[in-house]
Amino acid sequence: MEVTDMSIALSQSRRLAALLAVCAAAFTASCSRETVRRPEADVGMSLSAPVNEDQSYGFLPPVENPVTAGENIYTQSSEETACRQRLKRLGVVFSELPPINDGGSCRIDNPILVSGFAGGAIDFKPAAKLNCAVTEAFARWVKGDLVPSTRFRYFSGVDTIYNAGGYSCRTMNHRRGAKMSEHSRGNAIDVTRIKLNNGKAVKVHKPGWFSFRERGLLNSVRADACDYFTTVLGPGYNREHSDHFHFDLMQRRNGYRACR
Questions:
Q1: Structural domain count of the chain
Q2: Does residue 129 or residue 178 have the better pLDDT?
Q3: Is there a domain that residue 53 lies in?
Q4: Which of 68, 116, 169, 227 is most solvent-facing, going by the fewest CB within 10 Å?
Q5: Alpha carbons 248 and 180: distance in angstroms, whole number
Q6: Residue 256: predicted pLDDT
Q7: 114-129 pLDDT tens trace
Q8: Peptide bond into 66 cis (omega under 30)
Q9: Taking Cα atoms as reference points, which of 251, 253, 222, 221 lies closest to residue 236?
């Protein structure tokens, strides 16, 4: 009986050894060269790299403002935005300004600084603070009437338009107690002189009897301006306007225009 039990135990041990050998062979075959994970290559990111004690540290340089020059970063209505697009198509040279509020009627919610017309071919001096609406009307007058008139009478284009300012917190004609001027809303432009490309300077005044071309030019552009502005005043109207044209977009009842 003891011999038989020993024989059975020996037989089981041999079978177990054979089974282990088969498993070991299978495991070895599965661990081929392609499946063994290799260590990653060293790319210089070792945490044991030496530290340079002399190395200095600082803040990153500031990020430049992504807003392009001339772009309005202030709140504006869709009409103000559309108006500026029209100015660009007309070739008006302008830049944005922060809102102006000097109290009372002296304010422009979305002012611009105008310095030129016709894509910069015509200078506007000095640069004036205006609202967009009156700037657009003026640009259309320059393009549609002033430049064609100077070419017709003087065979020359316009080099510079000189003005007496745009925005100004004051009453009409600087008179105490009078209504606030359209200048107080940046809604008016005063033109004092027009310099042509040929060097001729045409002053806005009442020309002499024999100044035919000058009188013709001033009378023509003054009359044509009534198609663009609601108020056109100039030499001969009163003493305050004896040396300049005054253009504005004052709103009146029934669409009335004052061209004098």
A1: 1
A2: 129
A3: no
A4: 68
A5: 13
A6: 86
A7: 999 999 999 999 999 9
A8: no
A9: 222
d(CA 106, CA 142): 27
Q: What is the pLDDT of residues 27-58, one digit of tens each?
A: 455 544 444 454 454 444 444 445 455 555 45
159 located within any domain: yes
Please report, rounded to a whole number, the percentage of residues in the chain having pLDDT higher than 70.
Answer: 72
SS (H, E, C) the chain: CHHHHHHHHHHHHHHHHHHHHHHHHHHHHHCCCCCCCCCCCCCCCCCCCCCCCCCCCCCCCCCCCCCCCCCCCCCCCHHHHHHHHHHHHHCCEEEECCCEECCCCCEECCCEEEEEEHHHCEEEEEEEEECHHHHHHHHHHHHHHHHHHHHHHHCCCEEEEEECCCCCCCEHHHCCCCCECHHHHCCEEEEEEEEECCCCEEECCCCCCCCHHHHHHHHHHHHHHHHCCCEEECCCCCHHHCCCEEEECCCCHHHCCEEC
Is the pTM higher than 0.90? no
* pLDDT number for residue 11: 55
Residues 108 and 131: beta-carbon distance below 8 Å: yes
Beta bridge partners of 100: 108
Does residue 113 lie in a domain region? yes
Q: In this structure, is residue 130 part of a structural domain? A: yes
Statement: residue 68 has pLDDT above 60:
no
The parent domain of residue 139 ranges over 78-259
User: What is the per-residue pLDDT for 58?
Assistant: 53
Which residues are paired to 247 by β-bridges? 189, 232
For residues 105 and 70, give the distance between their C-alpha atoms in angstroms, rounded to a whole number.
26
**Are the beta carbons of 87 and 135 closer than 8 angstroms?**
yes
Q: Is 129 within 8 Å of 100 (Cβ atoms)? A: yes
